[in-house]
């Protein structure tokens, strides 16, 4: 009997490496360069499950990679065939930091190897379609966040936000205006709760919280408000997270949330508690899905880096248009001032054409004022409409990467170790037969250990299957976010086309108005 017959498509297999389920570690190496982070002017927070944060850039890639995870179906805790070879499969991470540890098994997907596409079964395709239909990332936001002008606190000032939901929420009692007052720490608490309950789901990142004078910076506070808006709306659009009772509490409890948390008793147990995997899922599973995950994880880092740079270019263009607007306004002022000096240079007694030129200079001044207004409107559309559509896709990619990282850190199990112990103890039991000098107490003790280990294996196998199902759901939901790319560039093209057309009309009008501007004295 060989439990490791199928190569782990995510992980090199080592029987000696057993990683505890709740082990956390990090090598402290940022996944993206600080330069890119600085260019965005909004560093991302690194949050662990326990809620600790480090504002040192994007979340780091975990250094400790799971070396062993057995995936196998089981139907009963005490079944003698619990370790049978019915569909063994594995997945882990093939992105270990040490290249020497990479497996060379042909079943492991190589980044440079071109794979033939595999056909998915009809049942699996139907399941995937049903999951995708539960998520609509292009739907309108239903949560609005506004920053209150007055800051609270005696020693350390903090900003309060009005969080308002635009639609009724299920099984809740809300205020008449459907709004509550929350502060940044309340959002941190919500994210920590979601990470504890749903560690293998797409949990979005929060914008950073800076301390000191930067907390009072208007530009930073506005960026943070937009980041909080993206966070809460991504959560509300998620088919599972949106139904969480503590999320609904966050959105509806009218009292101060920190006071409520001190008094209330709430459960943060992982969602897999008391849940059993369905046989229908285990039957329709295909190993090719793990290979898709391998490809996705291998390219996630690069995709984030590239999309961050794209977003930076959009923000730079916005700043250039804003600078152009200021230049047009300054140029108009200079033209107006200059027109007041030319009668002294060109007395009317010498010829009346100077009056016509001065009149046309006023037309130029008016045109520059119109173009300045157009540039300002264009800047506003970029800032409030276009750039957020690019930024939200960064949040989506970061949530996917966070999911893969949490898998590597939390999905470990001791199944391989327990299986070996069961085999050893089973051999001991067999060796005790027909030996009159063997103690019955010792025999019963070993038998009890075997039964306990089999039960633990069954529980861990069930959890492993549930994790696999959960990650497949999230990866399937993630497929819908590709349309965020389409919407972002469609909006980009639309805005540029609209304002380019308006700008051309203004310049053509100016050209027509200046066509009769004097170019000779007419004598």
Rg, rounded, reads 32 Å
What's the number of extended β-strand segments? 5
For the biggest sheet, the summary is: 3 strands, antiparallel
Strand content: under 5%
Helix share, percent: 40-55%
Q: Strands of the largest sheet, in order across it? A: 3-4-5
Helix count, DSSP H or I runs of 4 or more residues: 13
Task: Determine the mean pLDDT.
Answer: 78
The outline comes out as elongated
The CA-CA distance between the termini, in Å, is 110 Å
- Unreliable segments of 5+ consecutive residues: 1-115
By secondary-structure content and strand pairing, the structural class works out as: mainly alpha
Helix-strand string = HEEHEEEHHHHHHHHHHH
Describe the structure.
With 523 residues, the chain is mainly α. Among the domains are: 143-263, 2-Layer Sandwich (PX Domain), CATH 3.30.1520; 277-410 and 481-523, no CATH class. The protein is 53% helix and 4% strand. The protein contains 13 helices and five strands. The chain has helices at residues 34-40, 122-132, 184-197, 218-237, 245-252, 257-263, 279-284, 288-339, 342-345, 353-410, 415-432, 440-479, 482-513, and strands spanning 46-47, 53-54, 143-147, 160-165, 179-183. Strands 3-4-5 form a three-stranded antiparallel beta sheet. Helix 1 (34-40) crosses helix 8 and helix 11 runs antiparallel to helix 12 (440-479). The longest helix has 58 residues, at 353-410. It is elongated. Residues 139-258 form the PX domain. Residues 11-20 have a biased composition (Basic and acidic residues). InterPro entries: PX_dom (IPR001683), PX_dom_sf (IPR036871), SNX8/Mvp1 (IPR028662), SNX8/Mvp1_PX (IPR035704), Snx8_BAR_dom (IPR045734). Belongs to the sorting nexin family. Keywords: Cytoplasm, Membrane, Protein transport, Transport.
């Amino acid at each position: 009997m060989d439990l490791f017959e199928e190569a782990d498509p995510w992980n090199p297999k080592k029987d000696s490496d057993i990683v505890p389920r709740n082990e956390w570690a990090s090598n402290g190496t940022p996944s993206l360069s600080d330069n890119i982070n600085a260019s965005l002017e909004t560093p991302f927070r690194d949050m662990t499950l326990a809620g600790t944060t480090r504002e040192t850039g994007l979340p780091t890639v975990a250094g400790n990679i799971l070396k062993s995870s057995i995936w196998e179906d089981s139907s009963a805790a005490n079944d003698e065939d619990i370790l049978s070879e019915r569909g063994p499969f594995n997945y882990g991470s093939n992105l270990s930091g040490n290249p020497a540890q990479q497996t060379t098994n042909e079943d492991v997907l190589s980044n440079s190897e071109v794979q033939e596409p595999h056909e998915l079964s009809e049942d699996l395709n139907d399941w995937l379609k049903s999951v995708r239909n539960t998520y609509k990332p292009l739907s309108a936001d239903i949560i609005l966040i506004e920053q209150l002008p007055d800051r609270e606190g005696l020693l350390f000032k903090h900003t309060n936000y009005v969080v308002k939901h635009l639609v009724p929420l299920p099984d809740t009692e809300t205020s008449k205006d459907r709004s509550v007052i929350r502060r940044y720490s309340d959002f941190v608490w919500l994210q920590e709760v979601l990470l504890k309950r749903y560690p293998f789901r797409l949990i979005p990142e929060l914008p950073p919280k800076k301390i000191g004078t930067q907390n009072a910076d208007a530009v930073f506070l506005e960026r943070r408000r937009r980041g909080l808006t993206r966070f809460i709306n991504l959560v509300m659009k998620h088919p599972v997270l949106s139904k969480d009772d503590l999320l609904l509490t966050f959105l509806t409890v009218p009292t101060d949330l920190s006071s409520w948390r001190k008094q209330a008793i709430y459960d943060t147990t992982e969602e897999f508690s008391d849940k059993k995997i369905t046989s229908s899922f285990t039957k329709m599973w295909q190993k090719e899905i793990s290979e898709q995950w391998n490809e996705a994880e291998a390219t996630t880092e690069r995709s984030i880096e590239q999309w961050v740079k794209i977003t930076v270019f959009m923000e730079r263009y916005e700043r250039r248009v804003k600078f152009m607007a200021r230049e047009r306004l300054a140029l108009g002022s200079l033209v107006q001032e200059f027109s007041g000096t030319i009668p002294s240079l060109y007395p009317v007694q010498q010829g009346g054409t100077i009056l016509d030129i001065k009149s046309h200079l006023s037309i130029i001044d008016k045109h520059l004022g119109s173009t300045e207004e157009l540039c300002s409107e264009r800047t506003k559309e970029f800032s409030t409409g276009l750039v957020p559509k690019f930024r939200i896709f960064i949040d989506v990619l970061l949530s996917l990467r966070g999911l893969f990282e949490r898998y590597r850190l939390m999905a470990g199990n001791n199944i391989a170790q327990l299986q070996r112990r069961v085999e050893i103890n089973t051999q001991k039991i067999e060796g005790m037969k027909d030996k009159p000098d063997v103690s019955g107490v010792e025999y019963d003790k070993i038998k009890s250990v075997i039964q306990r280990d089999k039960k633990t294996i069954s529980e861990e196998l069930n959890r492993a299957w549930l994790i696999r199902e959960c990650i497949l759901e999230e990866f399937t939901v993630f497929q819908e976010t590709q349309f965020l790319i389409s919407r972002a560039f469609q909006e980009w093209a639309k805005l540029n086309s609209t304002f380019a057309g308006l700008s051309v009309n203004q310049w053509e009008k100016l050209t027509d108005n200046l066509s009769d501007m004097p170019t000779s004295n007419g004598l």
